[in-house]
Structures are given as C-alpha cells and as structure tokens.
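Q: Predict the assembly, please.
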Amino acid sequence: MRFKWLYFLISLAVILPGLFSLISFGLKPSIDFTGGTLWEIEVNSEQPTVNSEDIKKIFEESGLSAEVQTSGSDRLLIKTTSIDAPQKQSLAASMKNKLGDFTEVRFETLGPRLGTELLRKAAFAIFLATLVILLYVAYRFKNLAYGATAILAMFHDTLVLFGVFSLLGHFAGVEIGTLFVTAVLTTLSFSVHDTIVVFDRIREIRRNANLDLEEAVDQAVGETMVRSLNNSLTIIFMLLTLFALGGETLKWFVFALLVGTVSGTYSSTFTAAPLLVVWHKLSVRHGWRGVLRLH
Amino acid sequence: MTPIRILLIIIFLTILAAIVAAAGFLWTGKGEISLFNRSFSYDFTLHRGLDLQGGLQLVLEADMSGVSSADRSSALESARAVIERRVDFLGVAEPTVQTSRLGESFRIIVELPGVTNPEEALSLIGSTAQLDFREGEKLIPTGLTGKDLAKADLQFDSTNGNPQIGLTFTAAGAKKFEEITARNIGQPLAIFLDGAVLSAPTVQGKISGGSAVITGTFTLEEARRFVAQLNAGALPTPISVLERRQIGPTLGEQELQKSVVAGLAGLVLVLLFMVGNYGRLGLLAAIALAIYGTLTLAVYKLIPVTLTLSGIAGFILSVGMAVDANILVFERIKEERRWGQDLKTAMELGFGRAWDSIRDANLATLATVVILFNPFDWSFLVTSGMVRGFALTLGLGVLLSLFTGVLVTRTLVRVFYR
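A: Predicted assembly structure:
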C-alpha cells in the first residue's frame, strides 16, 4: 500500500470532473422522474416526408411544447408534457393529416406526482441497501472499520456513476429513469461483492500469519487481484456485447452497469483496501477504542 | 454419496431441465398429459412480458373524495373487480389487475399484454358506466339506475337487423320500471350512460315483466361494449389515469432478438475466456455454465417468470457472475498448488476455502435483490415491473449459479479432472 495516495489521486481524477458536472449541470431526469409524455411513431408511407418542425407546430397549436427527434427517415420521437386520452386522439388526428398513416411504436405518459414518488422510493431503497450491507459486513468481520470502508468504496462507485451520467446527460442528452436507480443499486451490490472477497482474504491472512494489517492488505490485494480482474472481465464481456448489439431501450442501463462494474472492481482493490490501512494507522496513532478500534 | 452418483443425479436433472427448456422451441410446450388415469395440464412456454410482446399498462387512481374513509379499501376492491370483468371482455390472454395503496392514493394497476386496440381498451376500462333513466322533457332522474339491473345482453332488431341492448331488471327494478312507464305514457324516457344519452324513446304503454330493449344509433362494436360495461357493473368511484405505458408489438420483438444475439455472443466470449485461462478446468466450468443456462431457462418456465427486457439484462448479467464462483475456486486451486499442495488436495482445499468468500459476496447481492424485488409490496420501495423483472432474474441467477458454480463444477472436477 505504498502507492495508496496515488490510488486515491486516480479516483479523484475520475470523480472530480463528474462531481463538477453534477454540481453545475445536475442530472437529466427522464419522464419517470418529471412526468410527461414519450411518443414514438413509425410512418407507414412509402416515401415518408418527416419534418420535426411540422410536428412541433401541431403540438404548439394545442398549447403544448414538444421536443421532436427523428431517427431514420420514418421514425419520430416526441417528448411533451403529460397528455390524456382525448388530447392524444386529437393530436394523432392532426398528425395523420400531416404524415399519413402511422404505427405507434411506444406511448408513455406519466403524471408529475409519480416522479417525486419515485425519487423518494429510490432514495429510500439506496439508503436501505447501504444500511443492510454496512450491518452485514460489520457483523461478518466483527469490526466497524470493514463495514465503513466497504460503504465508502460503494459511495466512490456511486459518485463515479452519477458523475458519468451527469456528463452524458449534459453532452449527449442521456436521461436517467427508473432503470438508472436499478443500476445504482446493482452497482452497490457489485462493489461490496468484490470488496468482501478482498476483506475475506485479509482476515484469513491475519488469522494464519501474525502480520501487520498493512502487510496483510498488501498480500491480500496481490492474491485477489487476478481473480477480481478475471471475474470483472466476464461480466464486462456480457455487458459490452449487450451494449453493442442489444436494443435501444436498455442501452444506457447496460452502460450504467458497465461503469458500475469497472468502478466497483477498481474501488475494492484501490479504495476499500487502502482506506482500511488509513483507518488502521489513524486508529493506532490516536489510540482509538471501542467500535472504531482497528489494530 | 460418491461423486459419480451425484454426477448421475445432475445429468438426470439437466436432461429434465433441457426438455422443459426446449418446450415451445423444439416441440409445443403446452398441453395435457395423462398419468395414472388422471390428466395434468402443463404449460412450458416462456411467458413474455408487456415490453416484449407489446401491450398496455395503466396505473389508475380512484377518486375517493366521495367515499367515507372507512369504506375506501372496499370501494377500491370493488372497482378492481369491475375493471377485471371489463378486461375479460377484451379477450387478452393474461391480463392482470392489481390494487395498490400509497398513503391516501388508491390505485389500480392494469396490465394488458398483447392488446391490439389500446384506445378502445382504455375507454372501456376508464368509463364509470353509470346507467340511469330520466323522465319527461326536463330529464328528471327517476331513481332507476344500473343498480336495478340484473343483466344486459346483445340483441338484434328482427325487422332491420340493427344491434340493440336487452335489459333485464331485478325484482325491485322491475317494479320501479313499471311505475315509471305507467306515469310517463306518451312522454320520452331517456336512457343515460355516463351522462350521455343512449336513446330517448317515447313510452307507448306500461311495461311490466322487468325487461326492456334499448334501440339507438350505435354500431355493433359500441353495442357490445355497452353490454360488457353494463354487465361488469358501474365503477364505485371515478378513476383517472396516472400513468400509461403502451408498447407496439414490433419494438419488443426487435429488442428481444437483439438481446438474444448479444447474450449468445457474450456467452461465447466468456466460454473462450474460461477455457483460455484455465484450460481443462475452464472447459469443465464452461460445461457447468451450459448446465446453468439450461436450468435457468427451465426454472423460468416452471415458476413461471414473466420475461421482460430488464429481466433479460438481469439474466445476461448473471451469466457473467455465474462463473465468479468458478474463478474464485480455480484461482484458489492455483495458489494452493503454488504453496506446494498436490493436485488432489489443492482442488479439495480450493473448493473448501473459497466457499466463505463466495457465500459472503453472494449474500450481499441477494440482499440488494430483495430490496429491488420488494416481495412484500412495501409502498415505500420501488414497485416498478421493470425493476422487479431485473431483480427476479438476477436473484434466481445468483441462487442457481451457487448450485452450478460450486456443486456441479466440484462434481465435474472430481470425476473428470485427474
């Protein structure tokens, strides 16, 4: 752990741009959080003439502001505020006038109230997962330091994930919704999964040989590194193919899992383990007692 | 038990699972089977979720302002029953209608996979279906309503073949109807459904016997729908749409195909990686992974798990994780060898000593899965179907991979790796 400050520096270098983006741009929430309508259609005519401005105008005539994207020559994606069935019917009729016959690929509309509800639920789920994992790790390793550093590594990964999606949201218009929350929670469990393997090894080494914590950490990290890397690689293979070959709907969900996996692998070895050493040094230097003690 | 015997059991289980897994792909997975003179029906087809086959999902909110707080739960339940009866009329294969309560918000979640006309479905589900009769030019309510109705049916006018709606009243309703018609001879009697006039015939004479016919200018489709609504009963409260998600049938099909291709490509990469890295041990792990895939598919069909897109992502992820136990064990075996153990001891030690890590690490994942799946429907946690689909397949994946990654691989190694 001679290079622990370098490891922290690398983390910082990844986290800071994201953090800056989070503070200045925030995240780009999808209709899952804000409420609104997502309407995707495919025009049936042989030579479709799709003009997003025309469609925008139709919505404006009904007093709605809409964001219209075209993909290919025949697909339209419309984002607007929450609309009800009669509104939809009259808009569809006007659009048919302009575009000819079309098929509905997708139509989603949510009231704004569900958004704040989701936010509350997501925050609670993340809090609950963190608490359960903290208690479990602390119980398993009979020491608060292990639980606390595992949680810090989890926060590290969450920050990386939020930062990356804040940047993606600002520069590429990527939105976060319910599935992003799922990805965050899955990242939490991945992160701690890897951390536990490293911690387990530290515990085993200290049980068998009378080593100083720092020496044990060094040895454990060396011994688990290959396994950690290999395991992450198999997960990364699966996620990369899904990201590259899979459909649009899950694309950014899969990407979030990918970021979480990479960050989780790094943080187990290069965040959680060095933090444990830092904790240990502080504990020895200041003579910490009780739950804080890690000698 | 000797490893050989365990291996035989595993092979037997895998063959059974393979039969179930192949159902619907290689042979029709649905039907009946007779055993001991009794017939059992079975269904081994893969259930596709709304996002994969297209369909409509609605979150409705019941307006309980007119209902006393003690009666709200039962009002929600009866609204659910009414909607369920209306949905049956749509002829959707596997509709679900559930209630959910969040604080003072009373909700009904309707899922209609494969519904072809979502607009019609929405108007059928959403109308309150309040039937009432109003008398005279001023349309004064008579007090005769849908509650006095025993049943409605579709009939056809014998002279011109136009559709019409036959009404049969309850005993009390029949009596009311007789009195109303008696005092309104020569006057119009308007029939309202949800505040709109269905028809307003002039009463020719007193009608006894408790049945009546509504003729009007409606199409056959409309007549059918009115009959369905009247028979299903009126909603006890007005409802509004909080959320509506509607997916066309083509989108899901494309996404499904892409995901399957991606999953297979990833699987091949993982298999190559395992064999390349661990040689013959890796090959055994690859076989265990194939068994894992077969068992998982069979379990999906037996439970049955309704497969959604996010569920597929959960499964694909779990394949990547399934080899984790193998990697932990194999790395441990390598180390034990490095520390001077002979091969046989190293293998047994590898499986034994890696177990602590495997257990602890997977328990942490399972804890998250439980929170995501929210098995007790706690309203303070996420209840979204997308999230649940993911949690369910990921959780099953973790459990099954513990079985194949530890027990199956160990048996294969004991028998074949000497």
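Residues 249-302 of chain B form the longest helix (54 residues). Chain B has a mean pLDDT of 85.
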